[in-house]
Design goal:
- The protein has 10 helices and 58 strands.
- The strands form 13 sheets. The chain has a 22-stranded antiparallel β-barrel. The protein has a 5-stranded mixed beta sheet with strand order 10-16-17-13-14. It has a 4-stranded antiparallel beta sheet with strand order 3-2-5-6, with no helix packed on it.
- β30 and β31 form a beta hairpin.
- It folds into 2 domains: 93 residues, Carboxypeptidase-like, regulatory domain (Immunoglobulin-like), CATH 2.60.40.1120; 680 residues, Maltoporin, Chain A (Beta Barrel), CATH 2.40.170.20.
- The chain is mainly beta.
- 7% of the residues lie in helices and 49% in strands.
Length: 1052
């Protein structure tokens, strides 16, 4: 039975247990002068049910006994009141900044925000549940200063890349540690597209249900994350899930979300010329088959003329490309339905949530489904003992994850390389088996019925329908995340806490290249199963007390982490029986098995001393002992120290009406990291040997390095936090400077050694930058409220040092270059992290060099730095408007200061599909009038000057060679996007007072609605085909999508 039906049954069953609502009224006034406060938010805690006070400060709200009302108003300290049997509750709010705001910090410890000496941003969970993302990490885009979010162009449940304060390691993945309810989350990805293509297999954050998120805290600096030690060298994102609450009866919350999505049409292809070669269209079936796709060098289109195509049928020589995109891509849809139950009393509180997500991609035959179950229990046993138990379960099914980049199975590549005069629907062939040769059709390559229906004699040119409907790339994952915490208050100021946490999942993958595929006619198949488990045991002894003007908060503890990974894989080729895709049908089969484990033992401590609530000093330390490093050098200490000064309290400035709050903070910290297991010694495996006897072999291609030691990142941070005009304006400014030394990198060595490389401590990289958060409430009145915030981040990341004798190193091997092999991502000393390097046109004394025989440009033999794939500037502008029961908010996401090498445009240019191949343009030594006339003026390789006008037979070759000049296809990746829009309406309490409903909200939601600015043609400025360090490469990524739909939220 579908989970949707189960949710409905739960809802019907539980409605009979609902308790009656009572109507509460009251007046909210200023505690100093007794004047009514207009526009105060009155919210039932833990729900979306609420209202605002009117012109005389009064409010009316239907609520249950035992519920908690929250009263919040900008510039005033918030209050909470538990509803009893009283029907009138009057409140007095005190002006000033709420100095007791609590945030979640490292190790899940809650601390007063005013005492923190580092930057932490907390995002409320409500921001993830309306305009949703399947991968919650993508929802951070544009919301947090200094956080750069990129998502891979790979469809539903693709992976996300989140980088906090720039890339701090040349060899690490530079992504933060995710911690869910104290459980470190394995965010590994299991597949990326590289030089030879591939597919993005998603990551760990796609397991998380947005409906379960209470808050998400971003710990940015090294000081904020130092207590997590080696795993937090790139920052930490803490996710706290919802818990049960004290209330009368059973609370029910239902959330239903539906969105549709369409591809974002960035394409502007030429529409004047059709398929052909050297300025002429094919005249026979054989010529059309030989010309194939990737060859739009025919004649001018003429709808009244019929020309042979790949299948020998003569069709109108007419423009088709925009229809082709619409014909191939579908309207994607995502349904998410969830129901949550909560209840409890002062001693025992429970929450259960069930969620069902079903997503269909714009790509035919692709999608993603996810079921989530979460259970939370908090129990107080007497006055001293608290037990907290949380379990999160997810089941994920990804169907036919698309191949991207240069993968032969990339349907998008096959689609956009079609000649503009070919209708993609003509490639369907057999409608019962799209993309295959239909019965009774004879192909020039001798394909049988049911095999791939190809457009040319190039076996690697994929039929897009065959790619999407016959290939298979599926995976399922079952995951359990659990945290079990016991806390005992030994005295009023001394406590001990123990935690058991586990992240465990299994993942099964099936990848099929079907029988009859052009480039692999007999097909292949791969099955893989992974089992990954991490267990953490943690104990903490804590102290929290005051001594006159002094306060002390301190704790010490230890952690034991053990992680294991087991993989069983079966690969094979050649299906004995055509079109029967099973392992048993494979003629050639190979079985592989892998197992690894690692451990970290840690001790840690923290102490904060406060003086008169305006001066705070904090010191922390953590010592990690790594199993992956040499026992003689396998430990490292991560210290931090910092302080914060609330100068408005020290100087008694808060009485000044324009400066409500002011804090200076500064900190210094060190964090670091280790490496993968089995880098210290040789490891061996067994393979089938001669005459059936096994032989041993060395497993790794890198020479082990027993002298590896942890990398170290040292950061200094200063900040200023201001609140002005009764908190109507806020300013939060941060400057940071971080240097990573002893970075762990792979270095190439002579292959004559029998190995390809080794792993050594060689790198040094420096990051510095600023972060700024501005917030304001420009308008606050009885019926209308406007809040606005702007965040900005600047980061400069410089490669300081590599191994002796090295000036540069390729980033992430094959991931650092697209299939063109004309551009690369390299770390270059003195340049920013991840430079785009490539070839340019050769020059002699400033004059371009051409081949005098055919006019083609001659390129350099060495590469140079052409740009950088990482944006220097990130930012976001968020506006929120409330008018009576209506709420509107929108987010603009901004990035600038980066570049992208567009391999997609390279291929479009060389094939004659790019619009510039039909327009007038000039470049050094080149004057072109599309394909009508091209004249080159320059010198040959001996320096002899010449001028040459190219004819029709030479022009296509010129464009093909010109596309090999890397710098000609570097584009700025700057953009501004309307990232998120939500327009909601809360049903008035008077309409639902006589119903079981406590609250009801209907919203229109949209994401990626508009591109306000970009400067790149045919592709999205964010287009990337993997989430590694090699950013700034585009090559046939799936088009970005815009989504729009509705969200219905009901509270009972």
């Amino acid at each position: 039975m579908r989970l949707n039906s189960i949710l409905v049954l739960f809802l019907m069953a539980c409605c009979s247990f609902l308790y009656a609502q009572q109507e509460v009224t009251g007046i909210v006034t200023n505690s100093e002068d007794g004047e009514p406060l207009i526009g105060v938010t009155v919210l039932v805690k833990g729900t979306s049910s609420g209202t605002v006070t009117d012109f005389d400060g009064s409010y009316t709200l239907s609520v249950e006994q035992g519920a908690t009302l929250q009263f919040t108003y900008t510039g005033y300290a918030a209050q909470e009141v538990v509803v009893s049997d009283a029907t009138q509750i009057n409140i007095q709010l005190a002006p000033g900044v709420a100095l007791d705001e609590v945030v979640v910090t490292a190790l899940g410890v809650e601390r007063d925000k005013k005492a923190l000496n580092y930057s932490v941003t907390e995002v409320d969970g409500e921001g993830f549940t309306e305009a949703r993302e399947i991968n919650v990490a993508n929802a951070l885009a544009g919301k947090v200063a200094g956080v750069n979010v990129s998502n891979v162009a790979s469809g539903p449940a693709g992976s996300s890349r989140v980088v906090i304060r720039g890339n701090t390691s040349l060899g690490g993945n530079n992504q933060p540690l995710y911690v869910v309810d104290g459980v470190p989350l394995d965010n590994s990805g299991f597949g990326q597209a590289g030089l030879w293509g591939g597919s993005d297999e998603g990551d760990g954050t796609s397991s998380i249900n947005p409906d379960d998120i209470e808050t998400m805290s971003v710990l940015k600096g090294a000081n904020a994350a130092a207590l997590y030690g080696s795993r937090a060298s790139n920052g930490v994102i803490l996710i706290t899930t919802k818990s049960g609450r004290n209330r009368k009866g059973i609370g029910i919350e239902v959330n239903s979300n539906f969105v549709a999505e369409n591809y974002f049409n960035h394409f502007d292809f030429q529409e004047q010329y059709g398929h052909g070669r050297e300025g002429r269209a094919p005249t026979t079936h054989e010529e059309a088959w030989d010309f194939g796709n990737n060859s739009m060098w025919g004649e001018r289109l003429d709808a009244g003329r019929n020309v042979p195509q790949f299948d020998g049928v003569a069709r109108p020589y007419d423009f088709q490309v925009y229809d082709n995109l619409d014909r191939y891509y579908e309207t994607g849809t995502t349904w998410t339905n969830s129901i949550g139950f909560t209840g409890g009393n002062e001693d025992h509180r429970v929450r259960l949530n069930l969620s069902d997500l079903r997503s269909k991609s714009i790509i035919p035959n692709a999608g993603f489904d996810r079921n989530n179950v979460s259970l939370s229990y908090t129990g107080n046993f007497g006055d001293r003992i608290t037990i907290t138990s949380k379990v999160l379960y997810s089941h994920e099914l990804a169907e036919n994850r698309p191949r991207i980049a240069d993968s032969p199975g990339n349907g998008f590549q096959g689609l956009v390389t079609l000649p503009v005069s070919v209708n993609v629907n003509d490639l369907i062939g057999n409608p019962d088996k799209p993309g295959s040769v239909p019965e009774g059709v004879t192909t020039l390559d001798g394909k049988a019925t049911g095999e791939e229906y190809q457009i040319s004699n190039n076996l690697w040119n994929q039929n897009p329908w065959w790619a999407s409907d016959q290939f298979s790339n599926d995976d399922t994952r079952d995951r359990v995340i659990t945290s079990q915490v016991a806390k005992v208050d030994i005295t009023d100021f001394l406590y001990v806490q123990g935690r058991f946490s586990m992240d465990w999942y299994t993942r099964r993958e099936t990848d099929i290249t079907p029988y009859g595929t052009g480039y692999q006619r007999q097909g292949s198949m791969q099955e893989r199963e992974r089992r990954i488990r991490e267990i953490n045991l943690e104990a903490i002894l804590g102290f929290d007390d005051r001594y006159g003007d002094f306060s002390v908060n301190a704790f010490v503890g230890g952690n034991r982490m053990r992680r294991s990974s087991e993989t069983l894989a079966l690969t094979g080729s050649v299906f004995n029986i055509p079109f029967f895709n099973t392992v048993s049908n494979l003629a050639n089969r190979n079985v592989g098995y892998g197992f690894n484990e690692r451990g970290i033992n840690s001790i840690f401590g923290s102490a904060t001393v406060g003086f008169k609530d305006f001066l705070y000093l904090t010191a922390t330390a953590r010592q990690d002992y790594f199993s992956t490093l040499n026992p003689e050098t396998n430990d490292i200490l991560y210290p931090s120290i910092g302080g914060s000064l609330i100068f408005t309290e020290l100087l008694n400035l808060s009485a000044n009406s324009w400066l409500s709050f002011g804090k200076l903070r500064a900190s210094w910290a060190q964090v670091g990291g280790d490496t993968d297991p089995y880098r210290l010694n040789l490891t061996y495996g067994l393979t089938d040997g001669h005459v059936g006897l096994p032989t041993a072999n060395i497993q790794q291609s890198n020479i082990p390095n027993p002298f590896l030691k942890p990398l170290t990142s040292t950061e200094f941070e200063v900040g200023l936090d201001l609140r002005l005009f009764n908190n109507r304006i806020g300013v939060d400014f941060t400057y940071y400077d971080q240097t990573t030394t002893d970075d762990i990198l792979n270095a190439s060595i002579a292959e004559s050694s029998g190995f390809s490389g080794t792993t050594i401590n060689i790198g040094e990289i420096r990051n510095n930058g600023v972060e700024l958060l501005l917030s304001a409430t420009p308008v606050q009145s009885r019926n209308f409220n406007w809040d606005v915030s702007f965040n900005f981040g600047y980061n400069n990341s410089e490669v300081v040092q590599l191994a002796e004798g090295l000036e540069s190193v390729r980033v992430d091997g094959n991931l650092g270059q697209p299939r063109t092999r004309w551009a690369f991502i390299d770390h270059v000393i003195g340049e920013r992290f991840g430079s785009i390097t490539g070839f340019t046109q050769k020059m002699i004394n400033g004059v371009p060099v051409f081949n005098p025989d055919d006019g083609r440009p001659i390129r350099t033999t060495t590469t140079s730095v052409l740009g950088n794939g990482v944006a220097r500037f990130t930012g976001g502008l968020n506006n929120s408007f409330d008018y009576k029961n209506f709420h509107l908010d929108f987010l603009i996401d901004i990035k600038a200061g980066g570049q992208i090498y567009s391999g997609t445009n390279v291929r479009l240019f060389g094939s004659g599909l790019h619009k510039l191949t039909t327009e007038e343009w000039t470049a050094p030594g080149v004057v072109a009038n599309g394909r009508e006339a091209v004249t080159v003026t320059g010198v040959d390789e001996e320096g002899n000057a010449f001028t040459k006008s190219l004819d029709n037979t030479e022009i296509p070759g010129f464009y093909g060679s010109y596309s090999q000049l890397s710098d000609r296809f570097i584009r700025d990746s700057d953009f501004a996007k309307l990232r998120q829009v939500s327009l909601g309406y809360n049903l008035p309490q008077k309409l639902i007072a006589s119903t079981p409903l406590v609250s009801a909200r209907l919203s229109f939601v949209a994401r990626n609605l508009l591109v306000l600015f970009d400067d790149i043609e045919n592709v999205d400025a964010e287009s990337t085909y993997h989430n590694s360090n090699a950013q700034g490469l585009d090559y046939y990524g799936i088009p970005q999508t815009r989504s729009y739909g509705f969200n219905l939220k009901l509270g009972f």
